[in-house]
Design brief:
heterotetramer; A: 126 residues; alpha+beta; three-stranded antiparallel β-sheet; 5 helices; 20% strand; globular; B: four-stranded antiparallel β-sheet; binds pyridoxal-5'-phosphate; binds FE2/S2 (inorganic) cluster; iron-sulfur cluster binding (chains A, D)
């Protein structure tokens, strides 16, 4: 059902956990299936220095969470914003058709965390 | 790696005795039972013997058995066939919220095509109220279908009582006994049923074979037209080796049922109690004790998701199933758990272990060793779980 | 006693290679292909491989294959499913007088339920006229079903031409290829078909398995409701071992077909010519040469009755079949022979020998040795035969 | 399908043949299936001295023909008239349900032959 890459990321998920006092936190729920994902970002300047996630969800949800954290670590915010759901699925070697919606969680949570970071910056400024 | 199969409610291995009998009919006695030559006649004889074995197991007459390609087809034939045959008597149908999809989807098709459908609720253990059935029956009710035992939570319904009621009111009573056959006694007379569905691959027989018991006198409009096999109820060249395998599986199940049920009940409770002991925030789904199938364990593990549980179990060789949305195509969690009033999030993390003939205490203990570690790992990953 | 099986059009033995593969999936890799654990996934993989094998054999895409419980169910699904799906486009249906009962009875059911049916005649060889098909198509025609090769007399219909016509006129074209598969090339694109029925037990695969090819874009209303297997076209736990056996049988047939057809054609003509040479008052039914299936021999033996012939052949170990009324439940002689214009009495004494993979020249010669004696004995008993 | 007795009478049918200048000949066709049976009687006084048959029909038709000839040989006409279709089927150890109609041929042909005998007697007298 799942590719080897998916199973690898499911079995040994990268960057599981929380970042206390993170610069940005994003949480999304998958309206289709009720699964939930939370992403924590540690940002220095324009760069994502550290990233962690927590996910309640299926194998694909866990694997895409893990994959997206790998993909953004060390990237600039602009680069991170460019990461699409499709890119995450592709990086995992593809997902079964009925599991494609799961990859939405990962990119959406990432983007939500970046938005949270900007909101906090605004507040700090304003 | 150790492999522990705990998904017998999904399907069972074919018993070696059954399989080797089938081989003979695949490669040597392969005649078409409708042929008059000796190849045909030896197949015909074995087919009719299988009919006796299946009938004998459920207290029916051989002539009351129609072989089908499985439980799903038998359910469809019963519901659609009777609804069509008795449509002049009325258009009201009754079933329950916890039936298998083979029943529910079929009734829903009828509800969209001129029939009226009442779907009865169940209590938090998944059990039906006989009173509720009584209240639902109307003068124009023609057909009532209730499963004997539930495939997800193992709840055994008060079918005999419901059957008595149906008979009093002149309503045709169908029972889906796919999960109960071979685990608890199934007798068409004791249960007061008019039609009853059974399936071979749930009792160590081959896949692709099932049967519908139809009490003498009950009419059915066929669903498949052709050569007129199975007394015109179900056309198509008979799956002779499969049917013979099913017959043999019934014979074996009949001989072993009492012993097996006792053993499975022991394993079931060892597993259920062991899980409750070792893992926090776990809830047993379905009734406990005699109202539960001897082989069914169903628990909800809070804060973790079912598919992740299954995948993790599979990685250590344990095969189980779940009522999780994520494991099905549909994305809705189990309609059975929802009907029992369980919130979405908790239904999401439910696990079914269904025990079988080969399972041992060691199998159970292996699960009890692995599952807590898996749950802990997944909970550490879960945003819902705060230590 | 020597046993010579010459009834391969009724059913075939399962190839030993097929049978032993199936065994593995009955007893070891027995998972339910819908389960996500490794038992389920290994079954799923094998199932999808079988889908590729079947699709590959008929030039289709795997996604266009729906597995069923046999040819009869596939025929029913095609006819009833398309008639329902396209009923708003029209209510006129066309088929031929020589179809298998799985087609004829299904169309007759529709004809009694609001559809209009044209049944095309055949000539004295059992062949259809393409012109006749053309004339029968009306603006409100939605579905046309023509068998590729006839099961009784082996007549091969001009299916590709008829398919071209159907496509021009926008009529859905279904072909029953149960008898042609494995004997002559069957390619859904060359034949211009929209739907095509095949059955496993006619090509050395297991009974109880068949498939319907449905060209991408063609709609079908399902006949069986439930778990939504086979892309919701055909619910019910998949008969995985059976389907895998069918897949393997297709692979084997594909590899062997050319050689086998040549060998069978030789045996066929040896048997047919031998009978004509040795017995008086015998008539070959169906076309000769390339328009006849390589494995079909059908003769009418005047003044004797078919069942008596079959019983007598069986007593010397020869398994054949007949178009005699007396061998069927129906009491009418073969509708195929009658449609070919044969008088009742002669249809009565018809015999079909259908050759198969294991048959040898010695088998044929054994029939040629025994049959004349049997005919003589029966004719001596016959009030119709005056020496 | 068929009992051993049926198969025995089918394989070794008794009294096959014709009686030249028979005292009575009866022929019936089975309207259901098109099978045909002819019975020849040789009658002396009230007794059936000899009987022969010819049948074009199924296994059951042949066996019942053979059986009925055995049953009437040496019997009186009155006794022969008492032989029913059911009795013939029973004497063969039963017939499959869809073959019960075949036994009609045998008793009917016998009765037709007796009628023919009476008709000839009438003619001879009158
Ligand atoms: C209660 C119940 N009914 C019906 C079915 C369908 O039977 P089958 O798998 O033979 O189609 C199943 C199993 O899948 C079942 O558990
Ligand atoms: C031409 C034809 N169509 C359909 C069928 C039915 O297929 P099955 O025996 O698999 O039900 C048969 C054989 O019985 C056949 O010969
Ligand atoms: S099914 Fe819920 S995220 Fe995959
Ligand atoms: S079927 Fe014709 S007499 Fe038996």
């Amino acid at each position: 059902m799942y590719t080897e890459k998916v199973m690898d990321h499911f079995t040994n998920p990268r960057n599981v956990g929380e970042i206390p006092d993170a610069d940005g936190v994003g949480e999304v729920g998958n309206p289709k299936c009720g699964d939930i994902m939370r992403i924590y970002l540690d940002i220095e300047g324009d760069t994502i220095k550290d990233v962690k996630f927590k996910t309640f969800g299926c194998g694909a949800a866990v694997a895409t969470s893990s994959m997206v954290t790998e993909m953004v670590k060390g990237k600039t915010i602009t680069e991170a914003l460019d990461i699409s759901n499709a890119a995450v699925a592709e990086a995992l070697g593809g997902l079964p058709p009925n599991k494609l919606h799961c990859s939405n969680l990962a990119a959406d949570a990432l983007h939500a965390a970046i938005k949270d970071y900007y909101d906090k910056q605004e507040k700090a400024k304003g | 790696m150790r492999r522990v199969y705990l998904d017998h409610s999904a399907t069972t291995p074919v018993d070696p005795e059954v399989a080797s009998l089938m081989m003979t009919y695949y490669t040597e006695k392969y005649g078409n039972p409708s042929s008059i030559h000796s190849f045909g006649q030896e197949a015909r004889e074995a087919l009719e013997k299988a009919r006796e074995q299946v009938a004998g197991f459920i207290g029916a007459q051989p002539a009351e058995i129609t072989f089908t390609s499985g439980g799903t087809e038998a359910d469809n034939l019963a519901i659609l066939g009777a609804a069509e045959a008795y449509k002049d008597k009325g258009k009201h149908l009754i079933t329950t919220a916890v039936e298998h999809h083979a029943i529910l989807e079929t009734f829903e098709f009828l509800a969209k095509n001129g029939y009226e459908l009442t779907v009865l609720p169940v209590d938090e253990e998944g059990l039906l109220s006989v009173d509720g059935v009584q209240r639902a029956i109307r003068p124009d009710t023609i057909l009532l279908s209730v499963m004997h035992a539930n495939n997800e939570v193992g709840a055994i319904q008060p079918v005999a009582e419901i059957g008595r009621l149906a008979r009093e009111k002149g309503v045709i009573f169908h029972v889906d006994a796919v999960q109960s056959l071979g685990k608890i006694p199934v007798n068409v007379n004791d249960l007061n049923v008019d039609m009853l569905t059974v399936s071979s691959h749930k009792i160590y027989g081959p896949k692709g074979v099932g049967a519908l018991y139809v009490r003498k006198g009950i009419r059915l409009v066929p669903r498949v037209y052709g050569g007129g096999q199975e007394k015109k109820r179900r056309s198509g060249t008979e799956n002779t080796p499969g049917i013979i395998g099913f017959g043999k599986a019934c014979e074996l199940a009949q001989a072993r049922m009492a012993d097996e049920a006792a053993k499975l009940t022991g394993l079931r409770d060892r597993l259920m109690d062991g899980i409750l002991e070792r893992i926090d925030f776990v809830k047993v789904n379905g009734p406990r004790g005699a109202k539960r199938l001897p082989n069914n364990v169903n628990v909800s593990v809070q804060y973790v998701e079912g598919e992740s549980l299954l995948l993790s179990l599979d990685m250590v060789g344990i095969a189980a199933s779940s009522g999780s949305a994520c494991t099905s195509g549909s994305l809705d969690p189990s309609h059975v758990l929802l009907a029992m009033g369980m919130p979405h999030e908790i239904a999401h993390g439910s696990l079914r272990f269904s025990l079988g003939r080969q399972n041992t205490e060691e199998d159970v203990d292996y699960v009890l060793e692995q599952l807590p570690k898996i749950v802990e790992r997944l909970r550490r990953m879960s945003p819902l779980f705060d230590q």
